[in-house]
Each structure stands twice: as structure tokens, then as C-alpha cells.
């Protein structure tokens, strides 16, 4: 049964002498998602936030608690302490230990059975209905779909660097140019929209002439799920996109993320990319995007149904070119054969 007490929660945060309204959240959303909403409103990164009156049983509420666990009062004004950083300034500081621990928490090989639970499908339907997408470039007929994370997938946002170029994963533009031939491209980050737009501008993605991004998705398109082993986590369900654009499905969609739990709702559609960290040390030897360009091209050309793929073994993938060429030749012959007049 779906949770019938899922009425939106209206909150505000008081910080640095000013009060900021927070977009409505669901009781089933996590404290981590609340912190991202606060970051989007104030610019204070989640790891810098100290929420003085957001507690569970008298103690500071950790990120895995849901808002319903905290019994928050309606229209609560959250009191926050925290220091402001500009988007790129965060990349000039060395990573906090806490940040590394959070990012290293990951779903193990066994799949957690949440994909088809009714309560989560209801959440996806709500996102399909309520989440507004700003389309930058229209979908193209016949293209497959590539969904990309940003942090540690395309961009090392925590290492010491002087310019955005130094933080960009090697071969990023070559990778996106190649992928664009066969795929419509969506960027989905667990941050606020203004930070996504800033990072895409910083990396030169939003203005590149050789490829186009279809649209961006931020944390508000994510949902919160509960697993017995890993507790409450926030994830990126591809059903949000598929519900709005039915030409895409698990048969023609692939998602890259450095954290496996982000695609727990669509485990067969996700590919866990090696995280790009310590850009200043690894820039000269990171070739991940080059190799993945080949994989994307091969499966686009030689695989008609991505459900048949095991992305965990992407590096060993060898396309059956003969079978695909035979099928293509057969279709071509059928198309060119003279038609029999109907009696």
C-alpha cells in the first residue's frame, strides 16, 4: 500500500540574518535531500551545514533519516550555522573525511528489491506529474538515451585546482561529441539546478558546438527509498524520464554514475563508472571516457535491446557484428522486395 500521509512539508531556513523559503518536500524525503534543498536556496554546501533544530530523539539527525522520522512542525523555521562558498571555491579545498565516507557508501553487487515496490512507483508517478523540465534541445527521432552524473563522473569537484579545465575529466568533450551521434544526452546531478548550470558553463558543455544537452535534472527529480541493509537513500529513477518521454525505456537507455545506489531503481540500465578524483594526479592517465565511447558506439550499433546487456562487464563486451549485419541485410532485402498486390 502507498503511504497516504505524504502531504508536502513547508519549511524555511534562517541563516546569516536572512530567512529563505525551501521548496516543498515530502515526509518520505531524507535529511540529505533537505540539505540539498537548503544548499540550493542559500549556497551553503551540505557538509558545511549545522541544522540546530533538526534532531532525532534529542540528537543531531543524520542524513539517512526521513523527515517523517523527525516529526517536524508545520512551517518550521530551521536555524542553520554554516559558511558560504562559491561553486568552484569548494574545489580548491581538500576533501573532508566525511565527504569521502558518504560517497564511498555504495550498493554491493546483490540487487536490492525496490525496483517495483508500489510506494516507490507512486513517488515516480508524482515526479512525472509535478517535476518541470526545462528542455534545452528537443529529442531527436530514433536516438537512444544517455543519462550522466556530474561529480566524480565528469568533473572532480573537490580537488585543488586553479581552473575548471583542470577539474574536467580527460576527453570529456570528445566523449560527448561521440555519444551525441547515437544518443540524446541528459545531465542528472544530486545538487541544485543553479549549481548544475554553473558547472556546465564552467566545463564548456552548455555552449559546445559539436553536441547538445537535451535537459538537466536536479535533486528534486530524485526520490527517497528505504532498504533493509542500507537504510534510507536518495536515488535517480529513470522512470521519471520515461514517464515524460515514452520513446525512451530500459531497451534504449543507459545511465553513468560513480555511485551504484543512484540507479538502484533501474539496476540493469546503470553503469558504475570509475570515480574521477584527485584530478591533478590522475589527469594524465585517466582514459575511462575514451573506452566508454567505444562501448556506447558498439551497443548503439549492434544491440537492439539494452535489457540484454550486463553493464557490469562492459569492458569485456564484444558485439556480434555478423548477426547484426545479417539482420540488417535481411531487413534491407525485405524492404527492397517487390510488394504483392492485394486481391
UniProtKB/TrEMBL annotation:
Residues 139-299 form the FCP1 homology domain. It catalyses: O-phospho-L-threonyl-[protein] + H2O = L-threonyl-[protein] + phosphate; O-phospho-L-seryl-[protein] + H2O = L-seryl-[protein] + phosphate. Its EC number is 3.1.3.16. Residues 314-323, 331-343 have a biased composition (Basic and acidic residues). The keyword Transcription does not apply. GO terms for molecular function: metal ion binding; protein serine/threonine phosphatase activity. Its cofactor is Mg(2+). Residues 9-87 form the Ubiquitin-like domain. GO terms for cellular component: nucleus. InterPro entries: FCP1_dom, HAD-like_sf, HAD-SF_hydro_IIID, HAD_sf, Ubiquitin-like_dom, Ubiquitin-like_domsf, UBLCP1. This is Ubiquitin-like domain-containing CTD phosphatase 1.
Amino acid at each position: 500500500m502507498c503511504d497516504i500521509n505524504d502531504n508536502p512539508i513547508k519549511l524555511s531556513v534562517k541563516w546569516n540574518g536572512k530567512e529563505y523559503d525551501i521548496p516543498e518536500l515530502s515526509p518520505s524525503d531524507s535529511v540529505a535531500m533537505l540539505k540539498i534543498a537548503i544548499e540550493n536556496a542559500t549556497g551553503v554546501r551540505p557538509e558545511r551545514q549545522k541544522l540546530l533544530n533538526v534532531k532525532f530523539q534529542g540528537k543531531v539527525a543524520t542524513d539517512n533519516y526521513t523527515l517523517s522520522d523527525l516529526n517536524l512542525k508545520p512551517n518550521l523555521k530551521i536555524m542553520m550555522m554554516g559558511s558560504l562558498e562559491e561553486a568552484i571555491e569548494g574545489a580548491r579545498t581538500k576533501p573532508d573525511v566525511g565527504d569521502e565516507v558518504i560517497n564511498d557508501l555504495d550498493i554491493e553487487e546483490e540487487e536490492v528489491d525496490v525496483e517495483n515496490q508500489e510506494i516507490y512507483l507512486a513517488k515516480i508517478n508524482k515526479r512525472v506529474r509535478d517535476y518541470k523540465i526545462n528542455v534545452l534541445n528537443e529529442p531527436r527521432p530514433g536516438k537512444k538515451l544517455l543519462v550522466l552524473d556530474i561529480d566524480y563522473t565528469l568533473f572532480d569537484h573537490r580537488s585543488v585546482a586553479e581552473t575548471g579545465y583542470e577539474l574536467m575529466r580527460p576527453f570529456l568533450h570528445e566523449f560527448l561529441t561521440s555519444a551525441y551521434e547515437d544518443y540524446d544526452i541528459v545531465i542528472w546531478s544530486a545538487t541544485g539546478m543553479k549549481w548544475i548550470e554553473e558547472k556546465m558553463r564552467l566545463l564548456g558543455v552548455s555552449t559546445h558546438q559539436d553536441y547538445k544537452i537535451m535537459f538537466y535534472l536536479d535533486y528534486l527529480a530524485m526520490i527517497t527509498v528505504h532498504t533493509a541493509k542500507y537504510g534510507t537513500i536518495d536515488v535517480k529513477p529513470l522512470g521519471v524520464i520515461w514517464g515524460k518521454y515514452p520513446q525512451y525505456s530500459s531497451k534504449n537507455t543507459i545511465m553513468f554514475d560513480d555511485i551504484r545506489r543512484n540507479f538502484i531503481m533501474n539496476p540493469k540500465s546503470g553503469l558504475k563508472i570509475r570515480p574521477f578524483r584527485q584530478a591533478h594526479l590522475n589527469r594524465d592517465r585517466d582514459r575511462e571516457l575514451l573506452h566508454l565511447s567505444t562501448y556506447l558506439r558498439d551497443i548503439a550499433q549492434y544491440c537492439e535491446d539494452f535489457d540484454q546487456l550486463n553493464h557490469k562487464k562492459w569492458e569485456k563486451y564484444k558485439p556480434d557484428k555478423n548477426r547484426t549485419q545479417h539482420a540488417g541485410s535481411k531487413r534491407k532485402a525485405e524492404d527492397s522486395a517487390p510488394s504483392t498486390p492485394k486481391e
